[in-house]
Amino acid sequence: MVADLNPAAFLPTTCPLLVVKVGSSLLVQPNGGVRREWLETLVADISARHQAGQRIIIVTSGAIALGARQMGFDKGGRASLADAQAAASVGQIILSGIWAELLGGQGLAAAQLLVTLDDLEDRRRYLNIAATLDRLLGAGAVPVINENDSVATEEIRFGDNDRLAARVAQAAGAAGVVLLSDVDGLYDRAPHLPGAELLSAVEKIDGRIRIMVAEGSSSGMGSGGMASKLDAADIATRAGIGIAITSGLNDHPLAALEQGGPSTFFAPREGGSARKSWLGGRLTVKGRIRVDDGAVRALTAGSSLLPAGALSVEGEFKRGDVIDISADDGIAIARGLSEYDAIDAARICGHRSGELEAILGTVPRSVLVHRDQLVLL
């Protein structure tokens, strides 16, 4: 749903804490060198916002590209997982040094954090990261965050820093995210096609918006693209965080956005606890429970998931694991913490509460997923 909203009025000037994501193609030249002059203008923007009282977190790509150039690896360091991990190990030192130098030149202390998907999917580690960010920001530092590509494998990778930026914003309690891209924002069709129009604001990420992206309205940047940016927008807005996609190709991109430059703004949703935002924004789940139409209606009305409404169980999960709840067509409608292991959940599917003790042999919990540990998708 397209809305008449003004991203410039929300993000750069009124947001107390902003996450800025910088992609590889903006930071690193095709030959593997740093776009240093451009980066200096971005750091100048960050310094100006910092002096105005706004706090900034940077989510940066570029370690693999920089390391591959240093080591002479083929295919930008992505010929194999081993090459990518080795390139990241070398490039991360270079990347953090550049940020530390340029931020230091503006009188700002840079603080490096390297994270994996697991770090933000595990509740305890998520809270530890949140506490570290809070202390750093309170002390006036600028956290510079990247995925820990030197140890991450396919199973524990974000795969793009767009979604990482949204999850970091959740953990830090930020009110806004800016994704610096190689396009001005989300277009209603591929930007190169005649008549393509930029969507200035999106109130809700619905099926029509998803179709636009699936049909080719995409950025060619790095490992992300517009699809990953839409995923990031979904994570952020679900947590009550506004997010803007804007071009980073020109100098002073944050100043340009503040002055009303072209962008697409995704409006934050209202309501929801921090825990439910964390649940809704998770990128990995352990299993799935399919439910009938009656359970769908009950969940939508705010009820817990009862065994009577469950049709089947998929995956291997334990009590306390995060699972999806889907309608019978397989489309996920909710996500929550299971009250049962998968084996016991499967045994009681379709049974009423009064039947559970006889099936399980113990006094059972009355729900499969409690409403306090559940979020609608």
Largest sheet: 8 strands, mixed
Whole-number average pLDDT? 85
> Which stretches of 5+ consecutive residues score pLDDT under 50?
217-223
How far apart, in Å, are the first and last alpha carbons? Answer: 16 Å
Sheet with most strands: strand arrangement:
3-4-2-1-5-7-8-6
Q: What is the tally of helical segments?
A: 15
What's the alpha carbon Rg, rounded to whole Å? 22 Å
Helical proportion?
A: 25-40%
Strand portion: 15-25%
Please count the beta strands (DSSP E, at least 2 residues each): 13
Overall morphology: elongated
Q: Could you give the order of the helices and strands?
A: HEHHEHHEHHEHEEHHEHEHEHEEEHHE
Secondary-structure class: alpha/beta
Compose a concise summary of this entry.
This protein is an alpha/beta fold and 377 residues long. It is built from 15 helices and 13 strands.
Structure description:
The structure is a single chain. With 377 residues, the protein is an alpha/beta fold. Helix content is 40%, strand content 18%. The strands form 2 sheets. It has an 8-stranded mixed beta sheet, with helices on both faces. A 5-stranded mixed beta sheet has the order 10-9-11-12-13, with helices on both faces. A hairpin with a 5-residue loop joins strand 11 (322-326) and strand 12.
